[in-house]
What does this fold into?
Amino acid sequence: MRKKILFYLLALFIFSCNRNEFSPNQKFDATTPEDVNAREISELSKKTAGAHIRIAVSGDTHTDYTDSKGFVDYVNSQDDIDFVVLNGDITNFGLLTEFQGIYDIYNKLKVPFITVLGNHDENAEGNFVYQRMYGSPNFTFDYGGIKFVCHDANSREHSFDHTTPNLDWLRMNLSKDEGTQYIMAFSHVPPIDADFDQTLRSGYENLFNSTPGMLASVHSHRHSADSIYRANGTGIPFIITNTILNKTFTIIDITNGQLTTHPVTF
Amino acid sequence: MANLLRTLLLFNILPLLLCSVQTARAQSKLINTLIPDQLIMQYAGSIGYISGGIGYNLWKEKSTLSFHFGYVPKNKGGELDIAAIKLDYKPFTIHIGDQLIFHPINPVAFLSYTFGQEFGFEFDSQVYDKGYYFWSPALREHLGLTSELKILGDGSSKIKSISLYVETNTNDLYAINWYHDKKGIPFTDIFRLGFGLKMNF
It folds into this structure.
């Protein structure tokens, strides 16, 4: 009888775990997808944008798979969302298995999803994992006459060496592409946060405010109810959205360059 | 691992050096203590694509303490260098015929340390306030189970027996993620497999 139980336990633990692993820190394995952002942007470009654009902005999933699935199910039940943004902090520890866990869930979205790099995602080999899996942390894409500028604003992960956010790269890319009238930015850490390089803050805010056609800069990171601020009380809105951990995301509607937002709890 | 080995050696060698009178017997005893009881090769198991190690039997072969060094090549998700120390315990022994000994379920605990720039023992205190990130990027604590089949030799070779084992393990960070979302992350999903071979002397 004892032997039977032992054999049963043995079979259970061998067959229940199905994965070899070389290290929790390995940068990829045989099944890891590559260049997901490029693929999703290509999918998005096949869509025809209407007069109203609706974006579902989610952030800070960390490894809350349950609520991430809840979010994906909610978005899939809607038919008016153009695309989804996952605005950083996909992981807790920057580990491959965490990136893959969230990818597997977001990949079930019926609409394209664009993934931005968060501060937690830069831990250990996370930066490399992200770049192989999703692509460059600084990238742009166009949809519905709007140029979206996504970038790494996780200054603390770069030891506040004044390279992040990369203002030179932003200056070059904050110009309208052919066929776009407006520009919108996505990055994880908001300028008002202590994790943002405060020596770059005013330069960053001024750059956005002096960019013609700039609509808004959208951030997450703070795990709190949606808030909007304007630098010195004027200029474009800096929008800080909630976290999937709170079962909440933010809808951004854009019509003729007019932008409105509202949180949705699912 | 280098440090640990050094400590181990120092603790064994220092007393001998301090003694002015050494007997040949003591020397041979020391050498016998230091010669490992096992050479170990392992595939995967979270300490390298391939890893090699030496093991020492404890408590009448009920337990093994082993030291490993693992490597993940660039084309397998590296490059990573990893050192590990393992301690296992074999509570059950099942004899199958004359030549096979089966240890079906053996708890194992190990520490792994990943070398390299991205892996500080802790986060840089110049950049992060204490507790900003609570974990060590380099040091992982693992718990797992192994199952081992020992094939006995006929006594004619220096290698007394060969053991084949399969090991499943999880680590502190995977366990934390599971703890925070038990519904979304099945318990078995946090375990990873490795396979190994031991030559027992």
User: Anything to note?
Assistant: Chain B touches chain A through 50 residues (CB under 8 Å). The mean pLDDT of chain B is 85. Chain B has three helices and nine strands. The helical segments of chain B are 2-18, 24-34, 172-180.
